[in-house]
Design a protein that fits this description.
mainly alpha, 6 helices
Length: about 120
């Protein structure tokens, strides 16, 4: 077996070359072209607009958020989900209860109730 079989055949000249070019042009012309206008690209945005926020938390509160995120067994809850759930729960409270909880939180008291339930 020699290397002669690897040599390219000579290019066809004349009508054969024109037919190949015409076939290529016909193929390219028949391809569907769809472009999204620049205006549509600018308007397309995600439905949810999230804002990255940094919190200063103690190590205890940070661990408590982790424990709360592991509480559900049938779905995955992220740390952001825990914070969102906390905000939703606070919005459901009466103003007096809300102020009492915010005052307690401002004194940096750890959430011992959460830890006690899981440690037993």
């Amino acid at each position: 077996m020699g290397l002669k079989s690897l040599i390219r055949p000579p290019k066809a000249e004349g009508a054969a070359a024109i037919d190949t070019d015409a076939a290529a042009e016909a193929f390219i012309a028949g391809a569907p072209v769809s472009t999204i206008p620049a205006e549509a690209r600018k308007r397309k945005k995600s439905k949810a607009n999230y804002v990255r926020t940094t919190f200063s938390l103690s190590k205890t509160v940070n661990k408590q958020i982790d424990k709360l995120s592991l509480a559900p067994r049938h779905f995955r809850a992220s740390r952001s989900d825990v914070v969102r759930a906390g905000v939703m729960a606070l919005l459901e409270l009466e103003r007096a209860e809300l102020l009492a909880i915010l005052e307690k939180a401002s004194k940096s008291e750890p959430l011992t109730e959460v830890l006690d339930d899981d440690d037993e």
